[in-house]
Specification:
Blueprint lengths: L2 H6 L3 H18 L4 H16 L10 H11 L6 H25 L1 H8 L10 H13 L10 H8 L10 H15 L1 H14 L4 H11 L17 H12 L4 H14 L17 H12 L7 H12 L18 H25 L12 H14 L2 H27 L11 H10 L1 H15 L5 H17 L18 H14 L6 H21 L6 H16 L12 H10 L11 H11 L40 H4 L11 E2 L25 H21 E3 L34 H10 L39 E3 L7 H17 L4 E3 L1 H12 L11 H12 L3 H34 L9 E4 L6 H10 L2 H11 L9 H14 L4 H11 L4 H17 L1 H5 L10 H10 L5 H16 L3 H12 L6 E3 H7 L2 H5 L1 H16 L3 E3 L8 E3 L1 H9 L8 H4 L9 H20 L7 H5 L3 H8 L3 E2 L2 E2 L16 H28 L5 E3 L5 H16 L3 H10 L11 H14 L18 H14 E2 L8 H30 L14 H11 L1 H20 L11 E2 L3 E2 L1 H4 L11 H21 L21 H17 L13 H10 L9 H10 L8 H25 L6 H5 L8 H17 ...
Parallel strand pairs: 11-12
Antiparallel strand pairs: 1-5, 2-3, 4-5, 6-11, 7-8, 9-10, 13-14, 15-16, 17-18
Helix pairs in contact: 2-3, 3-5, 4-6, 5-7, 8-10, 9-10, 10-12, 11-13, 12-14, 13-15, 14-16, 16-18, 17-18, 17-20, 18-20, 21-22, 21-23, 22-24, 23-24, 23-28, 24-30, 28-30, 28-32, 29-32, 30-33, 31-33, 32-33, 33-36, 35-36, 35-37, 37-40, 38-41, 42-52, 52-56, 53-56, 55-56, 55-58, 56-60, 58-60, 58-62, ...
Length: about 1900
Amino acid sequence: MDPEEQELQNDYRYRSYAAVIEKALRNFESSSEWADLISSLGKLNKALQSNLRYSLLPQRLIIGKRLAQCLHPALPSGVHLKALETYEIIFKIIGTKWLAKDLFIYSSGLFPLLGHAAMAVKPALLTLYERYYLPLQRALLPSLQAFITGLLPGLEEGADVYDRTDALLLRLSLLVGQQVFYGALWGSVLVSPLVRLPASLFIVTHFDRFTPPRQQRCMLGYNNRLVMKALCLSLQDSNVLVQRNMLEILLYFFSLATCLDPTEGSIPMTREDTITVVSAASLTLLRRDMSLNRRLYAWLLGTDIKGGMIAADPDLSISMEEHTAFYFNTHSRELLVQALINILNQKDVEADPESVIGYLRPFRIIISLMDKPEIGLLVVDSVLLEAVRAFYSYCREMLGEESITSTGLTGKQLTSKIKENKNASEIIKTVNMLVSSMNSDFLWDYMTCHFCTCLSDLADLPLPTLQYQSASPAPSVTEISTLIIFLMDVIPLELHADIQSQFLPQMLCRMLHTLCTHMNTLDLLELTQGLDACFKVLSKIQMPVAYMDMEESQTQEVEAQEESFEYVQYNDKESDEEDNDEDAGKVNGNHDNTEPEEEPKLNGVMEHEIGPGEGESPFLPLRSEDSGLGISASPSELHLLPGAGLGPEEAGIVKEGEGVWRKGGSVETITQYLQDILAFIISRYLLVQVEDVRGQEEAVQPDPAALSPGRKSSFREGPQITTTQIKDKLAELFTPNKHKPRATSDPPVPDPPTERKKGRRCAGGGVDWGAGYMPRSRAEISEECRQAFTAACHLLLESTTFPLYLSEGESHGLYNDMFNHTGSDVDSLPVWLRSLMTLCCLSRDYHVQHTAMSSLLELINHSRSLALVIQDKTRRYLASDANPLSGRLQMVTMPPIYPGLLSTIEQGTDFYQRVAQVLWGQLDVERREQHTSCVELFYRLHCLAPSASICEDIICQALLHRDKAVRLEALHRFSVLWHLTRDIQSNRTMSLNRSFDRSLCVVVDCLNSPDGSVSAAAQCWLVRALSLQDVVRILEPVLLLLLHPSTQRCTIQSVKQNLTAGILKDLKSRIRSTTNGYTNAITTSTQTDEGTLGHMILVDREALWGELEHDPETTKPPADSTGVSCSDSEATEEEDEPEEVEEEESVHTESSCVQVSTENSSSGSAPYGSSVEEGSMVNGLRRMESEHTQASDSLSSEEEEDLELEAMARSRLLKQEREKREAIDSMFRHVLLYSVAGGWPRLLHGLALLDSLLRSSAQQPLVNALSSTSLDTSSAAHLNLVSNLLQRHQQAQDGRGFYGRLLSPSSPLSLLIELMVSLCLKFLRSHYPSYLTLDPRELQGNREVQVKSVGVLTRLVTQLGIVARGQGDTSTQGEAGVSPEPICKLLARCKVQQYALLTLSASMYISQRGTEKGSAMGGVDLLDEQVGLSEESLVNLGGAGGQEQYPLQMELLKLLQALIVLEYHVWPGESGSTLHSDEPRDSPAPSALAREWQTAVLFQQSIKAAQYVQTQPITAQGMFVSAAARALQPQYGYAMHPHWVALLCSSLPYLGRSLGIIVAPLITQMCRNLDELVKQYDHDGGKATQSLIGRKENIAPDYPLTLLEGLTTLTHHCLLDNKKSLVACDPADVRNARNAVIEELPHMLSSMALLWGVVKREESQSRGSDYSQTARHTSTSVYFRSSKTLRQRVMEFLTPLTGQYGVQLMASVGAVWSSRRNRRRHTKNKILPVASESRLTIVDLVKSLGTLSTEHILQMVKEVVKKPHQIKRDQKSTLVDIPMLQFSYAYIQSIPAQALQENMAPLLTLLRESVQLNLAPPGHFLLLGILNDFVNRLPNLDNKKYTRDMQEVTQKILEAVGGVAGSSLEQTSWLSRNLEVKNQPQVCPETEEPSDELDLDLYGLH
């Protein structure tokens, strides 16, 4: 508190005064509206005036605060005026003293008021200032700047208070002093932007333009630094008037001529201050305002605002232009340049990446300066480098990258990233505007000069004359290279075509020339950066587009005009051109740069391998959008015209026009420079020279001076070569042993570890490898060296892609040089090529070595393709009459390596072998990081090598090595090679069409190797390959083998239709010669490796393509000679099917109204038997009825009638023969005939490979892969050959020829599984035609192919069944490979079941024919006079017996078994359900009975059908049932019987309705065969049946056991409950089969009895000791020697049947008993017959059944006698009650008395119940005999019950016997009781029983 105020507090009046004021101030707190404020101000005024004696106001801070609040701009002017009234009252009260002290209290409200006060308020405010503020004078100094700031808003032009305010400011300046006043004014300008306009206007208005600035220095204040800041800020003000006023101040006070002079300048200024001001002034150019620009340019050029000259020399009279130029260069240029550099560097500016304006300003300023030629052209050359630097740094900041060019971003990636960043895009647009404002090539010439300058600086050479004087520091090589790369990426070059086609080639040539000149002084990093920049330039070069249709005469005129054009800074251009002209025709080709215009066999875009350990190569292949190489369909045909328009010489480089692309121009020179650079890098940094035998010690690296264009001839071939020593050393590296050997005194250089291979040794014993050079170790090769070498190689590769434009003479000269000079000497190789080859083979650094290999292989590939293009084009032009390009320029891309040099590399060196060995060695486990590049290079080498065996030899030798460890390592390397070539091979084209087929075959063979570890390794590879969808890659070589042209075939119908009698006469002779020629021709497309891999048969894809595209007449297949026309492959085959279906439908219709019982129709063998008797066609064979001519009783004996009958019989026989021939031919209509011979080895090899794959542990993944993979040629070009072969085979099969153009291309099969199945079926159906003269090996080979194809098909079907089942193996449940529906479609489309059954039928027929006497297989005449040409006669079936068909039949049976199982799991519902699938869907659903009825009818039709029925499974096919019924007949081979039995036994659960139909005849035939063997045993071969004698076949010793086991399985399956069976069976089918088997039970029991007799005799003989008694049986066959096993098998057959089927078994015993008869007739008939030996065998057999006790036997006998079963004898039924009693009589006689006594009750029951039956008379006598035997053998009975029962039974039997006897007596007279025997014939029961043999007619089986 102020002391005075403290003193006044003691005055009560002052305190009262303070209270009044405080009360008035309190009113402000309750004021809510402006009217309240006026009222409160009024009350305050009253309070203030209540006591005027005190000049020190109480509460003055609050008063000042309330008054300032009342001056708020939002309040109305009335409040403002009332407040000013209060201010005036206060100022009057307090006086000047206290106003000066409390000025800050009252000024805080007053000073801001003038700017927003109303017009009525401003005068009052100014009055207040004039009355009370100005008198304060110097007391105003503390608030002077604020006071001025408050007054300046009143200087508004046109305002009423302007003059009053201006006068007030002038008075104020006089009161406080002008210097102080203006210092405060400049301070206001600095801190308050709002007052800058009135402040600048006040200054401009009040300085005198005619007075020197020094005399008015006071107007700049007293603080120079403050003035500078205010001036710079004002120059950047947003108000253009402020900027204009400030520029006028600059013009007057800050002349650039005097501002730096302390004596002349207005204020002292440093150079930095001046540059800052110039920078700020330059920013006004962004306004694009003419008034601002005029003042700025006047300031920079030394003129005043009115155009007068400033600081002109009064003694000289010069023009205004001269004055401005002199003034600018003298005073302004350096300052402006430095100012622009500061702006570019964002000096004193905070970088804000979000705001792009600050980054755009410097470029826009330069653009504006370019509009003023006097300034822009003189500044831009000094600023452009820094502008480019700033441009690069701005983009780097925007993109957030430390270094744009080092991040690996390509041009496209960088462009896309920039487009995503809006700020970066704006910057680039602005820079593009800047570049467009210059000349088109100015920027690139500018950068090129800086590039050359920085290299010259490094070499300390005199700088070339350079017109660009940059104010910024000189760039380094790295920096300038980075900037060039960046500019090339972001600056569009398309706007100026000449830049890319004319200027850039010259720019690149100039850069490369500078690099060549200064290579010695550059370090490797700088060299790499320079090469990177060159590569970027090269990537932007485009071919000229204005060269069309210019003739050579015009080009000569243009060339004459261009003779004086040259590089400005080079003086040796003429010598360069002379060297180019001299070397233009050389053969070496090391300086040729080429690009393929037309590559029909190449990718079109080169692929380059990346270095090892790198994620992505920094060098990417050029594309058409980068290089501008327009590759059309036939660019070699283009004729080009050099453009006539030539621009003037600009920026240091003279446009050469079309000379750039001509011979010896810049484009050709580029490649020469690059080859020199590459040779320098290799010889200096990568190889080390060693002393040779002659002691030569010349330097390895070439002289850099020699690499200049003037002396580069030292590196060329010809007389100019001077470094012959180097060439000699390099030549030794690639010279085979036949060349000069080294002396023994020369110590050999050891091979590096990775190079140990079969090195070539000279006669002296020294290794001839690496003579003269050694590779540097990896430690000696730095990373910079690797990068430099990689950059040079890549640049060289890309430089060879540009064409040259040659005249017609130059083109012919080039052709002669390329193809007429073929040298085989290694010395002919150029230095760069030999050094690169040396590096490929010797380098120990993998990165360098792989880069060298990749580059060299690419050059070789490139050269080969280009040489082919040039050769083809030239030959066509020479052959044509009129050359369309005659007299015109031709675009020619020259190969970098001429054909002569390529042949030298292939024939004169072992380069390919050594590189292959190196790469194979690098695939070991220790160098996994190198595997990717190794594999890519190895595959590329494999495709480019002269022979495909070069690389494959190395792999196969390792895979087949004797050492197991080597084989395992080779398998690992092969797996690496396989997996890493996946993408390469899947996308390979014609240029890379080789594959590792032979190695793959060896690995597939290893899958089933006996060595477990080798097999496991191969299995692991296969499983992994299949999991990666490699199934097509694995199968491709197999498919090429299976689809080879030598395996072409056609249908037998097409051959039959086109064969005529005339053709057949000379057919065989022609076919013989044609076949030989074709066999020789087709070997050209097949490679066979001799030696260890002699069994490998592989396909050469290139040769095969060539063979397919041409159709030489010498290799036409015989199918063409027969004139086979087009016919569908399945036409004839399917012709019968519609008729068959119609027939079936008619049968169905006719039988629809007839009730057919399913049980009766399918029980037993009646349907089959009836179909046989009816002569229906089953399996293609018609069952022939026996012909019995029915002669009429009234037949005349005349000759006419005899002739008529004879003719009828003959016609009937002919009809039968035709029907028989038709039936046989139907079995061969599915056959395909090979057109040529010799294809079976390939098929056998391919099928063996398939079999190996399927036999491996990966068969399930393989089948899944086959089922889910399609042969898609759209995604894999390498499959085009497979697709082409498939289409050609189908075309040939249709009879349209195999070769030539494809007539109707069709898409291949959808899935591989379908393709495999289809191919296997075609091989199965294929035979050689009979008109071919064949070697026996051909026929045997084809049979092996058929067997192998069925084996492969069986494995496929079996695995499909496992997959379809799915439930047994959980691993298959997750597989999505196969579902039932696709499998059904697969089987239906391929007709697997149909062809399998047809082939089986045909094979059985051939086998049957082989057994016929006098039959000659293959001897059938082609043309039968009566029948015509038959299908059978066209097939060469061979001349051997039927046993050769057994292997095929065995495999077919396995296939059928697998198919039956597969059908069960995938068949859609009931059989035949798909037959009427075409019925309308809206028809009502049939009932269950109707469906059952339809199913039964369809089944019956299928069983009786002679052909295959598509809608029925195999088990319901008549072909299968017929084959099964005939299979066990002797004429079809005993060797096949076990296989048939195994098939049918394993298929029992799946037979369904066919179970009974198949089992019944099968059981019958098996019993017959057993009976035949027993007869042979009994008769000792003397009375053997004709069937056994006729067969020349040996029967297996276990044949009876096989039949017994089969019988047991069949019978038990049908009769017993199979609860363990996994297959559900229909009860009705089982019931029908059971009935059929029970009917066959007597025959089976008879066979068992025969076998039992054999067993008993064998056992008795083995127990006997008399040799003479056994001698009769020792000579019998070996079939029954194992009597113990036979006994066991018989028991196993019968014992299970005794429980459930005891009664049926006993009835069968009765039937067999009745069929066994005594051997001799007895003269005396016996009522009780004596059992024969055969019948006693039956008794013994029954007694041997352990499950049957005597009680059970007697009970079953009782049951049979009570209800005797009828046994069919032919068509009559025979009761078995009497034979049953005979058996009982014999059985009771055979059991001991003890057993008889124990079973008395059942015996008495049998007698009691039997005697009550109506038996035949012998029955009662048999009962009496049994009773008699029983009574005589048993003692007296103690049991009274038994006694009574026996008496009762005896009485009844005697009564029955008496009745029988009485029936034969009669009375002598009617009165007498005497009886006598009736006179009637007596029949002896034994007379009709001639033997005890089995009566086969009993069962209707004969």
